[in-house]
Specification:
The complex is a heterodimer of chains A (538) and B (474).
Chain A: H1 2-17, H2 24-45, E1 50-57, E2 64-70, H3 72-94, H4 101-119, H5 124-141, H6 145-173, H7 189-204, H8 211-214, H9 221-230, H10 232-247, H11 251-274, H12 278-295, H13 301-324, H14 342-360, H15 365-386, H16 394-399, H17 405-422, H18 427-439, H19 452-455, H20 459-510, H21 515-534
Antiparallel strand pairs in A: 1-2
Helix pairs in contact in A: 1-2, 1-4, 2-3, 2-4, 3-4, 3-9, 3-13, 4-5, 5-6, 5-10, 6-7, 7-10, 7-11, 9-10, 9-12, 9-13, 11-12, 11-15, 12-13, 12-15, 13-14, 13-17, 14-15, 14-17, 14-18, 15-18
Chain B: H1 7-24, H2 32-55, E1 66-74, E2 79-85, H3 87-107, H4 115-134, H5 138-147, H6 149-159, H7 165-189, H8 207-222, H9 231-240, H10 244-263, H11 274-296, H12 301-320, H13 328-359, H14 371-384, H15 391-406, H16 408-433, H17 449-467
Antiparallel strand pairs in B: 1-2
Helix pairs in contact in B: 1-2, 1-4, 2-3, 2-4, 3-4, 3-10, 3-13, 4-5, 4-6, 4-10, 5-7, 6-7, 6-10, 7-8, 7-9, 8-10, 9-12, 10-12, 10-13, 11-12, 11-16, 12-13, 12-16, 13-14, 13-15, 13-17, 14-16, 14-17, 15-16, 15-17
The chains are: A mainly alpha (538), B mainly alpha (474).
């Protein structure tokens, strides 16, 4: 297994060595082959446990090992991320909007390897290292300044929070082992749970902290989808899965998780309904997905693995619509595309219905809530694009095309598989979805696309600026003026200068050949002699 | 180990020898400054080789002086000159050597005036600071502590281009005051006999002498660290210096204060001083917060670098004050990466600052003209803020774990200050890398290929320090 990890790493390094997009086909083939080889290995290992431990450092006060541990449950999650990465790679290959293909391929494989190490973490150090590496990869993947700034700031703050929590735990237990942490025995239990959860929420972009992900809509669709489902948000979700046995011992854990999950599901669906930009819609669908993923974090790993792949491929259906219309990003500028894109429409509808059937079969209250909201939002969006009033430009119409088979084949495979698996038992979900597509009960929401206040204003960005950044800047400016300038420059330095001036004047007077001068000098000498005698020591 | 008998003396003398050759070189020849830099670089590289050789014979788990060398000087009073090294000193010496080498690489192509004397004074400084880190007895420790001031003052005075003479005088007086305080403390302690600096706390003194000697020691070392309200002099000097080598030298000075406090270990200090240690901790945290907050509203990259350095120096100082000596190695490992990272940032900052002045453009987005500088600068900023790219990451984590265990409230403030100054650096990176508006077409030079290659080596070393911080130790 280790040799395949090394081969995958070398494939990534090969891609890094050709930054100018030379030999792209060869590099893509190498990266794709290494992912397929990894998947084949996972398949072989599936029924067995695999463990590799490499002793790393000893001189930090702890013995730290880097481990690769595959159990049946985490293997499926990694396989799902591998398939997701492969789909993103194939999409990048045929998408003209992807301008740095080799760089993307390199980052994609490094990200996958980091996820493997993250899932395998048995100690806090490995966990925080690979979380940090995944953040650096995301930093490289985001090729838009505004998006990069917001994403990096929020992730960095969250990482520092997690570092403080892990340092607190390690400081008390003197052990880096995750399994040996017993929360009830630790001091500051609530701090540990609350800060960990809030940091993970920030990194996954859950409601209240979603403005970082919102800015990502300026990226190419494929990069956006990859970051939304396979980068920092997924990494923090994996951290939650790793820490859950420890965190779940606190009473506030469930409450916090429920509140933020439900808010994210609802707000995500709201955004997916009212926002015009299809990429931002994808971000809101992802927000809703991470809401339900956090709510189901106690569920089986297998379900989460399938769920992740399903949510990513739904995002891929939006990408297909975007690609088919030559990168039109506003849904209000689409409509009636089903006339020219029958196959694409059928594919999208079948996949969405299969995905909904899967969600229904989870038999969970949160999943039901998510399913209902997702059904409303997705049917509204798909109907708008493929059946709605035609607002598309004639040039867009002329260029409508079914994208490359490399993009839609994975969606088709899963859609057919899902249909085959669920249609018989949950046919009513398929029928209900078809009814919503045709009836479009929420069509009155279309007018919200024209409301600038909804489309362009980011209240949460202003909110964070107002409560965090602005006060700090004001305090900094005040300190600069009062402490550095007024207090040190004008008070301390001036008074020291004045005292010296005064001292010089006094000594000048003492040297003025007057009797008083002599007397004061002798008195000073006597005082000095007395002081020396008093503190003479033993 | 026979051939290592005088290795510590050699490590101090090699830069002095380099200085001698530099001073002897012919004045006025067109290649004089190149020769001076080549000699300086050769001396530093030779010394790095000697350090590596010494590291092969060092036991990293021992807290005792190793490779000890003793020279008898005076019989009455009995004064010996004792040198010794441990892994902590070795890491600091190595990082200071790399930092100065980086400074030389940074100014090699520039047209700074009087470069021969710049190289000579830098070599003198290197020799003195190396002596300071290997000094094992009180007397040699004091000599090197004081002797460092001369090259420092000359470098800052001549190459700092400090416009305000008042600021320069205050800076020098402030440092001299520290030297005088240490002298007074040593005159009390030296009454006993020539002693190892690691066993000073075992000396039995009367109450007043104890308070006086330890108080003077504390203040002497604190005078080198930009603790509030004395940070003002150092920050004023920093924002005025326009030569990267002088900038690096000025910013290495606080390291001598931190090192002094760690060596004299205030935790072993008499009980009467314990309340003062608490006061020191409070003042340190106030300093960290004040400087980090001021930098948050100040866009100048030099001030932000100064704020970052100050916060981390104080962070290491507070780590050293913890009631455990287990994290001393972590502090050493962290400090060594930190010095290297900060020095490279200073060299790069000097490069684009000089380009900005030459072409009269704004610094906003200046890195978009220079891909090589941008690549190295981004790496260094990410390493500085604690991404897993150097030994800073894990060792800072361990120090933080120790601080949190000791006092979680204090640690929360420290973490906040670290977070702020790291965000400041990130903000600077974005400001320098991404222009807010379209930039004019100007021919801004990138760093030379040689500098870039050197920086790549440094980056590789940092990455290696992350994988195995003591990879070079035998």
């Amino acid at each position: 297994m280790l040799s395949f990890v090394i081969i995958a790493f070398l494939a990534g390094m090969l891609a890094v060595l050709f930054p100018k997009d030379k030999f792209t086909l060869f590099i893509f083939a190498a990266v794709a082959a290494s992912i397929l080889a990894l998947l084949y290995n996972f398949y072989i290992l599936y029924p067995n446990k695999y463990q590799l431990s490499y002793p790393w450092l000893k001189q930090l006060g702890f013995e730290i090992s880097i481990e690769i541990v595959f159990l049946k449950n985490n293997l499926l999650l990694i396989s799902s991320v591998s398939v997701l990465s492969l789909v993103a790679l194939l999409t990048a290959m045929v998408t003209p909007s992807e301008r740095a293909k080799n760089n993307f391929a390199a980052m994609l494989i490094f990200n996958l390897l980091s996820i493997i190490f993250l899932v395998s973490s048995q100690n806090y150090i490995q966990l925080i290292i690979f979380l940090g590496i995944i953040d650096i990869i995301a930093f490289t993947l985001i090729n838009d300044v505004g998006a990069k700034k917001r994403f990096v700031y929020s992730n960095f703050i969250a990482d520092m929070g997690l570092v403080s929590v892990f340092a607190l735990i390690i400081g008390q237990t003197a052990s880096v082992d995750i399994a040996s942490t017993n929360l009830p025995q630790l001091a500051h239990k609530d701090y540990i749970v609350i800060v960990t959860l809030v940091c993970l929420f920030i990194k996954s972009g859950l409601f209240f902290f979603h403005n970082g992900l919102g800015e990502l809509s300026s990226l190419s669709f494929n990069r956006l989808s990859f970051i939304l489902f396979a980068s920092s948000p997924l990494a923090s979700f994996i951290v939650l899965l790793k820490l859950q046995p420890m965190l779940a011992q606190s009473s506030c854990y469930t409450d916090l998780l429920q509140i933020f999950s439900i808010l994210s599901i609802v707000f995500g669906a709201y955004g997916a309904l009212v926002i015009d930009n299809i990429k931002r819609k994808a971000v809101y669908f992802a927000l809703s997905f991470w809401g339900i993923a956090y709510a189901l974090s106690g569920f089986s790993y297998d379900d989460i693995a399938y769920f992740l792949l399903g949510a990513f491929l739904f995002s891929q259906t939006l990408l297909i619509a975007n690609e088919a219309s030559s990168n039109v990003v506003f849904v209000s500028e689409m409509g009636s595309f089903a006339k020219s894109l029958k196959f694409v429409f059928a594919l999208t509808a079948l996949f969405s219905a299969s995905y909904l059937a899967f969600v229904y079969n989870l038999q969970n209250g949160y999943a039901l809530l998510y399913g209902v909201l997702f059904m409303l939002a997705s049917s509204q969006v798909i109907a708008q694009i493929y059946f709605g009033c035609n607002h598309a430009d004639c040039r867009v119409w002329a260029k409508l095309h079914t994208p490359s088979f490399l993009i839609w084949t994975p969606v088709l495979l899963l859609a057919v598989f899902g249909g085959y698996l669920y249609f018989q038992s949950t046919w009513f979900v398929f029928v209900g979805f078809a009814f919503l597509l045709l009836a479009r009960p929420l069509r009155f929401l279309d007018r919200l696309y024209q409301k600038t206040i909804i489309q362009d204003t980011s209240f949460f960005t202003y909110f964070w600026e107002l409560i965090l950044i602005l006060p700090l800047k004001i305090v900094g400016r005040i300190l600069w003026l009062t402490v550095d300038f007024m207090f040190i420059e004008k008070t301390i330095i001036s008074s020291v200068g004045s005292s010296f001036e005064w001292g010089i004047r006094v000594f000048n007077k003492l040297h003025s050949h007057k009797v008083a001068g002599y007397i004061v000098s002798i008195l000073l000498a006597v005082i000095l002699a007395c002081l020396t005698w008093a503190f003479r020591g033993v | 180990m026979g051939n290592l008998q005088y290795i510590l003396t050699a490590i101090i003398l090699v830069p002095l020898l380099g200085m001698f050759f530099i001073v002897m070189s012919k004045q006025g020849h067109k290649n004089t400054h190149h020769n001076a830099f080549d000699v300086a670089a050769f001396s530093i590289i030779s010394n790095i080789f000697l350090l590596w050789r010494a590291s092969c014979f060092i036991d990293i788990n021992s807290t005792q002086w190793q490779l000890k060398e003793t020279y008898s000087w005076l019989l009455s009073p009995k004064i010996e000159f004792v040198l010794g090294i441990d892994i902590f000193s070795l890491l600091l010496i190595l990082s200071v050597h790399i930092a100065l080498l980086m400074g030389f690489v940074g100014i090699r192509g520039s047209n700074a005036q009087r470069q021969k004397s710049l190289a000579a004074f830098s070599m003198l400084f290197l020799s003195m600071i190396t002596g300071y880190f290997v000094a094992a007895d009180l007397f040699s420790f004091y000599i090197f502590f004081a002797a460092m001031l001369l090259p420092l003052f000359m470098l800052v005075r001549i190459y700092g281009a400090v416009k305000k003479q008042q600021v320069l005088q205050r800076f020098f007086l402030y440092n001299l005051w520290g030297v005088l305080l240490l002298f007074m403390a040593i005159s009390v302690l030296y009454n006993q006999e020539s002693i190892d600096i690691k066993s000073i706390s075992k000396l039995k003194l009367d109450y007043y002498s104890e308070i006086f000697a330890w108080g003077a020691i504390f203040l002497a070392f604190l005078s080198r660290i930009p603790i509030w309200p004395f940070h003002y002099w150092i920050s004023s000097i920093n924002s005025n210096i326009s030569n990267p080598l002088a900038f690096i030298v000025a910013n290495i000075m606080p390291l001598t204060g931190v090192y002094g406090l760690i060596r004299f270990s205030p935790l072993d200090a008499p009980d009467v001083l314990k309340p003062y240690v608490f006061v020191l901790e409070v003042v340190s945290i106030i300093s960290m917060l004040t400087i980090a907050l001021i930098a948050f509203s100040n866009k100048d990259i030099k001030y932000r670098l100064f704020s970052y350095m100050t916060v981390f120096y104080i962070f290491y100082l507070l780590g050293a004050l913890l009631p455990t000596d287990k994290i001393l190695l972590n502090i050493g490992l962290s400090l060594s990466s930190y010095i290297v990272i900060v020095s490279s940032l200073e060299v790069l900052a000097y490069h684009f600052e000089s380009q900005r002045m030459n072409h009269n453009v704004s610094t906003g987005g200046i890195l978009s003209y220079t891909p090589k500088t941008s690549f190295v600068f981004s790496f260094m900023i990410l390493a500085a803020i604690g991404c897993p790219l150097s030994s800073l990451f894990l060792n800072n984590f361990t120090i933080l774990a120790g601080l949190i265990k000791f006092n979680i409230k204090m640690a929360a403030f420290i973490l906040f200050a670290i977070l702020l100054c790291s965000l400041n650096l990130l903000q600077s990176l974005f400001y320098l890398k991404y222009p807010s508006k379209k930039l004019p077409l100007v021919d801004i030079a990138d760093i030379s290929k040689a500098t870039f290659a050197f920086m790549l080596i440094i980056m590789l070393l940092l990455l290696m320090s992350f994988v195995n911080p003591l990879w070079f130790v035998g």
